[in-house]
Amino acid sequence: MMEKRIIHIDMDAFYAQVEQHDNPELRGKPVIVGGRSFNRGVVATASYEARKFGVHSAMPTKTAHKLCPDGIFVHPRFERYKEISAQIREIFLSYTELIEPLSLDEAYLDITELVNRETSSREIALSIQSDIFEKTGLTSSSGISYNKYLAKIASGMNKPKATTVIDYNNVLEILHVLPIGKFPGVGKVTEEKMLGMGIKTGKDLYYLSKNDLILKFGKRGESLYNKARGIGTNELTVQRERKSVGKETTFNYDRNDDAEILAVLEELSKKVSTRLDDRQLAGRVVTVKIKTGGFEAHSRQMMTMDPIFKSEDIYHYAYSLYHEVKEQDVPIRLIGVTVSGIEERLYRNMTIYDFIM
Ligand code: TTP
Predict the structure, then answer these.
(1) N or C, where is the chain less crowded by C-beta within 10 Å?
(2) Please, are residues 325 and 265 in contact by the beta-carbon 8 Å criterion?
(3) What is the maximal distance between C-alpha atoms in the chain?
(4) What angle do CA 13, 109, 82 make, to 5 degrees?
(5) Which ligand 1 atom minimizes the distance to the CA of 11?
(6) Pocket of ligand 1, candidates 8, 9, 10, 14: which has the most ligand atoms within 8 Å of its Cβ, to mutate?
(7) Neighbour-count burial for 317-328, b at 16+ CB within 10 Å, e otherwise
(8) How far is the CA of 45 from the centre of ligand 1 (A)?
(9) Distance from residue 14's CA to the centre of ligand 1 (Å)
(10) Which of the two residues, 38 and 257, has the higher pLDDT score?
(11) Vertex 92, ends 116 and 103: CA angle to 5°?
């Protein structure tokens, strides 16, 4: 079997670059895209000029102001980013249908079939990046490797405007010096924990035994062990259109106690939220359904003001729907909550409310 060739493509400072592209007077300047509300706003991203001041994604706008008082604060224009994202996907599709989008500006492509004696994977990546630039005027970076997580590491290594290959001959050398926080799947919390244990780089990780890692990090220990060694999946999850995300529970006896049932509903809302979050999705319709002890099914649904994904927002709607659908003194055997009207999320660790000016 032929070794897979996976490309990870990621636009450079995406939202900020779009703003600088569309408004030439912003070029070369520290541009900070995000919520402008001084007290509640959050930075979505910053141009490379602003990053020099230490400004970064998910930082409160207030902090960004302090670090970079001359920064130009810009409100995000999600519709525009979505439009460009669609143009980029068209370009990907002109190469292959094996695409796994990760967010608006980021995707894996499996180009194994396109590589041959005349055309290397690097040339294909460069060609995609130059198509993107021609069509949108925007720069991107790409990483190429034999599995997904290595391709992702590679695309981040030499940003911006870079094309980087990780192969068997350089993989350990690269992983050994990689800061632990740069390993995909190692979030802030795990990073802190690792630093506390003296694990600073991929090399430190490499020298821990599998048993030790499993002991300290549970199920993820094995994946961390593999990640230190260049081992990871090369199978893309080619996106299907998702219509809804729902969870339900059947009780082991019919229930009538509101507090008890609502506690379950809250748990279900959390699960739906996690599912949406994993896939960077949000939805506009919440449905609660119940089945009575007599097997009658009832449901109610409600449209939300904005696409939602946080568990407290889902539960907020589910809570009032429950009170509409549940009849007093009629015990139920099943309850479920579903979010539909699904769309891709335009912002990650924040809701639309964080952008209120
Ligand atoms: P990223 O690709 O993570 O970052 P980036 O494109 O801004 O910069 P880099 O060149 O370092 O890759 O995110 C893509 C877009 O998603 C980003 O431009 C803004 C948005 N975003 C948020 O809204 N919140 C976040 O916390 C992050 C990380 C990104």
Answers:
(1) N
(2) no
(3) 74
(4) 45
(5) 6
(6) 14
(7) bbbebbeebbee
(8) 5
(9) 6
(10) 257
(11) 130
- Would you say the CB of residue 158 lies under 6 angstroms from ligand 1? no
Q: What is the mean pLDDT of the chain?
A: 92
Extract the runs of DSSP E, i.e. beta strands, from the chain: 6-11, 31-34, 43-46, 72-74, 99-103, 106-110, 140-145, 163-165, 244-255, 281-292, 297-308, 332-344
Q: Is the CB of 11 under 6 A from ligand 1?
A: yes
Three-state DSSP state, 127: helix
Q: What is the predicted pLDDT for the residue at 35?
A: 81
Q: Enter the tokens of residue 326.
A: 């549940």
- Contacts for 217-223 with beta carbons within 8 Å, 24 or more apart? 217/190, 220/185, 220/190, 223/185
Kind and range of the H or E run holding 111: none
Measured between alpha carbons, how far is 180 from 153 in angstroms, rounded to an integer?
12
Nearest-atom index, ligand 1, CA of 12: 10
Q: How far is the CA of 44 from the centre of ligand 1 (A)?
A: 7
What tokens appear for 13 in the block? 């400072």
Task: Provide the pLDDT for residue 72.
Answer: 96
Residue 125 has pLDDT above 60, yes or no: yes
**CA-angle at 147, arms to 143 and 153, nearest 5°:** 40
What residues does 43 pair with on adjacent strands?
Answer: 34
- Tallying the residues shown for the chain, one arrives at 357
> Which residue of the set 3, 79, 97, 106 is catalytic?
106
Using most ligand atoms within 8 A of CB, pick from 19, 45, 280 the residue to mutate for ligand 1: 45
Q: What are phi and psi of 182, to 5 degrees?
A: -90, -5
- Report the DSSP beta bridge partners of residue 249: 335
User: What proportions of the chain, in percent to the nearest 5, are helix, strand and coil?
Assistant: 40, 25, 35
58 lines ligand 1 (CB under 6 A): yes
| Cα–Cα distance list, 118 to 93, 123, 151 (Å) | 21, 10, 22
Under the banding of pLDDT at 50, 70 and 90, the label for residue 343 is: confident
**pLDDT, tens digit, for every residue of 290-333?**
999 988 999 999 999 889 999 999 999 999 999 999 999 999 99
Contact 306, 352 (CB under 8 A): yes
State yes or no: is 106 an active-site residue: yes
